[in-house]
Each structure stands twice: as C-alpha cells, then as structure tokens.
Amino acid sequence: MRVLIIDDEPLARIALARYLEGRADVEGFDLAGDAVEALEKLSKESYEVLFVDINMPEVSGIQLLDRMKFHQTPIPSIIFVTAYEEHALEAFRKHAVDYVLKPFSNGRMDEALDAAVRRSAGERAAKLIEQLPNLQKQYRRPSAKIAIKAKGRIIFIDPGEVVSVQADGNYVLLQREAGSYILRESISVMADKLRPFGFIRIHRSVLINSAYVEEIEPWPTGEYGLRLRGGKEYSVTRSYKQNLREIAASWIGSDGFGGD
Predict the structure, then answer these.
(1) pLDDT by residue (tens digit) across 55-73?
(2) Reported pTM
(3) In contact, 159 and 197? CB cutoff 8 Å
(4) Per residue in 128-177, pLDDT tens?
(5) What are the helix (H) ranges across the chain?
(6) Residues 6 or more apart whose Cβ sits within 8 Å of residue 48
C-alpha cells in the first residue's frame, strides 16, 4: 500500500516515516508539511491511507478533508493524528476513520493502520461523510492570542510568551518572559484553557509551557527535575509525571518514562 503523511511538525513526520519503514506491507510513502502540499500530491498520486494531523496552521486537517476531491478508487482510509483528545474524535475509533494520539506507540499505529486497510471503500466513504459534520462542529482551532482581565482591563497576549502559571491561594501568577500578571482564577481552570497551547501540569499548583522545556532529569524518588530555557528549574511530582510525555511529539532513542 502507499501512504501519505500530512503533518506540519517535522518530528512527527519523521516518527511516522520511521514507523512506516518497518511495515512490510507499505510499498512507499510521501510527506506533506501542509494542506497545499498535500492537495498537490493527491492530485498526482493515489494512496490507500492518509495520516492527517488535525491541528495544522492555516488549514486544519478537518478543513483539508473538505477540500479534497478524490478521483481514485477506492477512496483512501483516513487516520487522524493529534496531540489533543477531543471528545468528538471518539466516534472515529468505531468506524472507518481512526485517530491516534501523540506521542504514539507502534502498537497503537499498527492497530489503526491494520483496521484502515481492512475497511471497504464503501464503508470509508459513508462513515467519513457521516462523521465530518459532527467533528467540524465540535473542533475549534485555538485563537492566536489569549485574553486576560488584569487591573480592570482586558489584555491580549501571545500564549507562546507565557512561561509558567503558578497557583497562589485563590489567584494564579501568570509569568511571562518579561513581566507577570496576577489573576483571580483557579489553576484547574487555567490548565483546561491553556492545554491547547502546549501547557502541561507538573504539580497541583504549577503549569509550564512545554515549548520552554530544555531538559528532564529523573530522580531516585520517582519524581523528575525539569529545567526551562533560561535556567529556571521545577520538580515534577509523581502524580503528574505522565504529562511529561506530551512535551515531545516522539521519543527517539529512549523508552520515555519506563512504561510507568
């Protein structure tokens, strides 16, 4: 079979390509870094399976499927690959279109790819048409900015400039590279609102922007030390160490967190 990988993250494309290289039934695959490149390849080549990242800039994976016009028979199977678990995606696991969460394991990818290959062209077309409207309705691409209320004003900031969020009683301290804001909000609410922007919880009172993480060090206690760009360090409690998996799209030359 031939496969097309559509993902804007270079590391994710590399991880998927290496996975496909180990499949004896994959005759070949191509890579596309965005929707424009994907549509160009689809107009020239035929593929049995498409790996499609949902959260791509400019044109999301869902929007890309709307623009696709398949002239080949059978219609390719679609496997969504995403770093965010949306409730609407659960429906795809039971039908022709599957989804896989990043970071993925080879076992999970085998399950998705094997199922996609087995499905008939009629099932794939019917289920894709049936499920797309529901997913489009519930999937929302994050805004480029977040709005916060501080000192009676509404301030719009780039979430990429926020380094960490720490709880302090009924308030949270939102720390930027330059300056900070104190907001009357719970850390749990902040965790939910900032998760789409790459923030992970490492302690019951601390969120960090994963883009700033430079190093993770395991401690004998079962906890982890985490160092950010600029040298600031945090301890990651055992209750939240599983969240560290979300920092990287793939883990190369490492077993991650020892299967914990």
Answers:
(1) 787 777 777 777 776 555 5
(2) 0.46
(3) yes
(4) 666 666 655 555 555 567 888 877 788 888 888 899 999 988 899 999 88
(5) 10-21, 35-44, 61-67, 90-93, 106-118, 121-138, 187-194
(6) 1, 2, 3, 74, 76, 77, 117
